[in-house]
Amino acid sequence: RMTVRKSAQKREVRLGDVVKDTITGFRGTVTCVASWTNNCDRLTVQPKGVTDGKTIPAVSFDRPNLEYVGPGVKPIPPSGKPSVSLGDTAEDVITGPELSSMDELALRQRISGVSVFARAVPEQKLRLVEALKANGEIVAMTGDGVNDAPALKASHIGIAMGARGTDVAREAADLVLLDDDFSSIVKAVRMGRRIFDNLKKAMAYILAIHVPIAGLSFLPVLFQWPMILGPVHIAFLELIIDPACSIVFEAEVEEADVMTRKPRQAAESLFNRRTVVLSLLQGVGMLLLLLLIFAIALNRGQGEGDARALTFTSLVIMNLSLIVTNRSWSRSVFSILRTPNAAMWWVAGAAAAFLGLVLYAPPLRELFHFSKLHPNDIALCLGAGAVSMGWFEFLKRMQRSKNVAG
User: Fold this and answer.
1) Ramachandran region of residue 332, left (φ > 0), alpha (ψ -120 to 50) or beta?
2) Measured in whole angstroms, how far is the alpha carbon of residue 351 from the centre of its chain?
């Protein structure tokens, strides 16, 4: 919302309302307001106002917090440039006739520094979209009329008005704003970034946790060691892994910088090299630690049942530690634990309860081929879980220090 003066009073107006320039008497429709433009600045989005002579970009894009007292662009005389208020300069505006005289190269060079395009005809809107795309920008186009359809279709994300938009515009668009409220775009960006982040976290967790599972299943066969994991052990682990991926990470809140970070490159994959490397390092670190525990148990003469129980219990605890630390790749584990996520506590509680049954209920203990663990054994498993999480927390702390220094 923004405020406009009406006589001696102030009133709030919304997108689509008609406003009047008290000096010139020119009437126009509000096409951009301070609240969502300010959010777009945080998103590193560059709003572009396009008018056809009947609509007015109602506020300055550079100074959105100023009180609105008149339209941003005054009526365009038959010849010459429009006059601009609220801090804009004439260089920030391109008119339709001027746009027609530009070739594609000149338009691409000029478009990044222009906020308002006035008296633009439908084919020029399409040219603007293509020029922005040629500059490597991700283009979102909003429109409601039939003449907006080509530009809506050509943009990366076409956004049509649901209440007052035409059927043609809605069919050409990728998204439809049911309430015609531009602030919904900001909410959609926030949600999209949160979903993308959580998908990456879940995929990184899946890759990391299956490295020790694969290693503990394959290496004993390769080197003729006693078996560590059988089908029942893997089934138990999957009962933790599946809810973690589908519920815990899906329910995770967005990162603190979700609305201020730079947009990712369009060609960037969901699972990039950095994510793969960090996930493999997590998994290999867990595998080495588990093999060390298994070897120590055997060398101490504890027997296969003790060694298997120690290794499996350590793996379950490491698994839970991995879920916690991967909930955020920027925040510390203490900050993560203070962030609400009821699903994580349900999964962790259920895993601990069933692990207790497996270790101390004789029928289940025999099914898993375990020996009974003592308190010092449990302490060793907890310590292994802390070590497996500690090095990654140290890495995150180093990254935070680097970001602060940068």
Assistant:
1) beta
2) 29
| Helical packing angle, 183-223 and 34-42, nearest 10° | 30
Upper half-sphere CA count for residue 137 (Cβ side, 13 Å) = 21
For 388-405, the pLDDT digits (tens) are 998 888 888 887 777 666
Amino acid letter, residue 306: D
- The bridge status of strand 49-50 relative to strand 116-118 is parallel
Under 8 Å between Cβ of 270 and 198: no
How many CB atoms sit inside 10 A of residue 30's CB?
22
Residue numbers of the chain with a pLDDT score lower than 70: 1-92, 403-406
Question: Which residues lie across from 2 on neighbouring strands?
Answer: 13
Q: How far apart are CA 128 and CA 109, in angstroms?
A: 12
In sign, the C-alpha dihedral spanning 213, 222, 384, 376 is positive
- Short-list 216, 324, 329, 327, CA closest to 272: 329
Q: Helix (H, G, I), strand (E, B), or coil: what is residue 32?
A: coil
In terms of Cβ atoms closer than 10 Å to its own Cβ (0-12, 13-18, 19+), residue 95 is: buried
Within 10 angstroms of residue 280's Cβ, the number of other Cβ atoms is 14
> pTM value?
0.74
Q: What is the pLDDT of residues 158-171, one digit of tens each?
A: 999 888 888 999 99
Distance CA 140, CA 185 (A): 10
